[in-house]
Amino acid sequence: MAFVLHERLAADTLFVASLELCELRLMNDARFVWALLVPQRDNIRESFELPEHERTQLWQEVDLLSAFMQYHTGADKMNIGALGNMVPQLHVHVIARSREDAAWPGPVWGAGQAQPLEEDARQARLRLLQRFVDEIKGT
């Protein structure tokens, strides 16, 4: 069976690239620099359901993305979460937080309404994440 992205993730995010394990997606919310990593596996709700080598790969991708985002955004703190209460498909949020952002110091969830990215900001964030992809793929 081919990988199918949950409809809510598809609606709220923009595709960036397929990595070794995960699909990298950009959250369409101008208030935060926010990416998601979604393992390209069907019927997985929790990381422990992945084979050990894929769990390792998932957290390597999370760590690499987090370090890249922190460096390139100047984030005060990186937030990483895999809640899955509203979307059961396993996905990991990687969010570059700033003391000046709309939700600081609280969590981003439940803090106001998402503000869709305008075209220039969307393209800039997509370019940033594509740069990450190019770096890890060595291109």
TrEMBL record:
Residues 36-104 form the HIT domain. GO terms for molecular function: hydrolase activity. The keyword DNA-binding does not apply. InterPro entries: HIT-like, HIT-like_sf, HIT_Hint. Keywords: Hydrolase. This is Diadenosine tetraphosphate (Ap4A) HIT family hydrolase. The lineage of its organism: Bacteria, Pseudomonadati, Pseudomonadota, Gammaproteobacteria, Oceanospirillales.
